[in-house]
Amino acid sequence: MRRMLMERGTDDPVFGHFGAAAGYALAARRAMYTFRTGPETWKHIAVGQRKWANLTPAATMVGHTMTFGDYYSARWIVEPFRLFDTCLMTDGGRAIVITSAERARDLKHPPVLMMGMGQHNPSYDVHQATHLAGPTGAKKAGEMALRMAGITLNDVNACQIYDCFTYTVEITLQDYGFFGPGEGENWFRDGTIEPGGRMPVNTSGGQLSEAYYMGLTPLSEAAMQLMGRCGKRQLGPTTNTKSPEIILCSDNGAILQTHSCIILRRS
Amino acid sequence: MGDYHKPLPKVNGDSREFWTGCKKHELRFQKCSVCGHVRWPASMICPMCYSQETQWIVAGGKGKVYTFVVYHVAYHPGFEKDVPYVVADVELEEGPRLLTNIVGCRPDEVACEMPVEVTWEDITEEFSLPKFMRV
After folding, report:
1. What global pTM score does this model have?
2. Other beta carbons less than 10 A from residue A222's beta carbon
3. Buried-state track A120-140, b at ≥16 Cβ within 10 A, e below 16
4. Which is catalytic among the residues A71, A162, A167, A176?
5. How would you class A112 by CB atoms within 10 Å of its CB: exposed for 0-12, middle for 13-18, buried for 19 or more?
6. What is the pLDDT of residue A8?
7. d(CA B68, CA B86)
8. A60-83: pLDDT as tens digits
9. CB A157 within 8 A of CB A242
10. Which residues of B touch A27 (CB under 8 A)?
11. What is the rounded CA–CA span in Å between residue A131 and residue B64?
C-alpha cells in the first residue's frame, strides 16, 4: 500500500500528500468555500446509507447502526473528512452480465434494460482543476444520459451513486440537477435517501457502508433492485418506497476527473 | 540535514529546472512564448495553445490558498511528528497552482483565499522545498 502511494510518479509525497481521500478532501474543502456544504450535509449521506446497509446481509456494516452523534465523534482522517465520510476497503468481487435484450429474455432473471448513458471527463489533475466544487463531469454526463434515455430527473425512482466519499454523492446529485449548489443540506434532510424516503440513494449501503467494488457497487445494486432480488432492502412496499421503474447510476474516476452516468429500466 | 526522513523529489527532465530553482530559492515556471500562459507542472507543450516555444520565469512567491486539507493520519513515518499538518493547493499570482504545505500557523487558522507567501525549507544538500506562510 505504502509503495503504491509513494511510487505514483508525482512529487505529492514530498509535501506529505498521499492517496485519494486527501484529493477528494481538497475538492470538498473548496466546495465548502464556494457554496454551503460540509459535515452538516454529509452526515445525512453517511447515516442514510448506513440504514440501507443495516438491511443488507452482505454489507460490511450490516450489524452496525450509526447516529449523527456517531458520525461527528468519529476520528478525522483528512479534514474535512471524518472516518464515516470515507469508503470501505474491501476484498471481493462483483459481476454483471451484459447481453442483447433478446437473449436476456431467455435468462432466469427478469432482464434490466440500459436506457441511456453519458460520459464526461474534466481530466485536469486536482492541483490545477477548476471543477472541484462543480460542475464536475456529472453535469454533462448526466444530461447526455437523460437525453439518450428520453426522460427527465422526475422519472427517476432511485439513484445508485459512486460514493468513494460522502461529498462525491452530494456533488454528483447536485450536478445532475436534483438540487442547486448549497441546497444539499435541505434536500438530504429528513431521510430523503433512506428507507421510506422520496429518493432512495445507494440502497445496499453503497461503498461507504456495504462494500467498495468500484463502479460495480452502484451498477450491480441498480440491476438487482430492478430485478426485484433485494430482500429486506427491496425498493417498493417492503421499504415504503416507490417500486422502481428507472434507476440512475454513476461512476467516477481519479479525483473527479472522469464520470459516467448510466440509466437502467425494468423490462 | 542528514536525518531527513521524508520522501524527496523525484527529479525528471520536465521538473529539473523547477527543483534547481528551488535550491536557489527561486520558483521557476514555464511561460508560453506564444500565448503567455504560465504552466505547472512543467511540460514540453503549452496545455492552452500547444506551442513548444517557452521561457522560464521566476514567480514572485505570493499567492493565496485555493484549497487545503488537514492530515490527521501519517501515511508515511516521516510525517508522524507533523500531524495534524496542512497540505494546500496555493494559487500563485502568476497563475499556476502549487501543491505545498502551509506552515507557521495552526491548521484551524488556514482558510481558502488566505494570502500567503513562499518560505524556503532547506532539507538536504540537493533540495529546498517551497512552503507557504500567511502574509
Report:
1. 0.96
2. 25
3. bebebebbbbebbbbbbbbbb
4. A162
5. buried
6. 54
7. 7
8. 999 999 999 999 999 999 999 999
9. yes
10. 67
11. 18
Q: CB B70 to CB A79 under 8 A?
A: yes
Closest CA to A220 of A121, A109, A65: A109
Q: Tell me which residue of A165, A178, A158, A150 sits closest to A245, measured CA to CA.
A: A158
pLDDT at A91: 87
Q: Which of A24, A71, A176, A212 is catalytic?
A: A212
Closest CA to A86 of A62, A60, A63: A60
Residue A75: alpha-carbon gap to chain centroid = 22
- Please state, in angstroms and rounded to a whole number, the distance separating the CA atoms of residues A43 and A72: 8
Q: Which of A6, A26, A79 has the CB atom closest to B7's CB atom?
A: A6
Which segments within chain A are labelled E, that is strand? Answer: 76-79, 81-82, 112-120, 158-160, 246-253, 258-266
Q: What is the pLDDT of residues B98-129, one digit of tens each?
A: 999 999 999 999 999 999 999 999 999 999 99
B22 Cβ contact list (under 8 Å, min separation 6): B28, B120, B127, B128, B129, B130
DSSP strand pairing (B62-71 vs A76-79): antiparallel
Residue A155 burial class via C-beta count within 10 angstroms: exposed 0-12, middle 13-18, buried 19 and up: middle
**A232 vs A129: CA distance, rounded Å:** 42
Cell of A112: 434490466
Count interface pairs A-B at CB distance under 8 A.
Answer: 93
The nearest CA of chain A is from the CA of B25 a distance in Å of 17
- State the amino acid at position B14 in one-letter form: D
Distances (CA, A) of B23 to B15, B63, B99, B122: 13, 20, 17, 8
Q: From CA B3, how far away is CA A124, in angstroms rounded?
A: 36
Judged by CB atoms closer than 8 Å, whether chains meet at A127 and B99 is answered as yes
d(CA B98, CA B101): 10
Which residues of A are less than 8 Å from B70 in CB distance? Answer: 76, 78-79
- Is this complex's ipTM strictly greater than 0.90? yes
User: If you ran DSSP here, which 8-state letter would residue B8 be given?
Assistant: P
Catalytic site includes residue A124: no
Whole-angstrom distance, CA of residue A20 vs CA of residue A13: 13
Give CA–CA dist A126/A21, Å, rounded: 12
Torsion of CA A67, A70, A76, A82, to 10 degrees: -10
pLDDT tens readout for residues A137-165 = 999 999 999 999 999 999 999 999 999 99
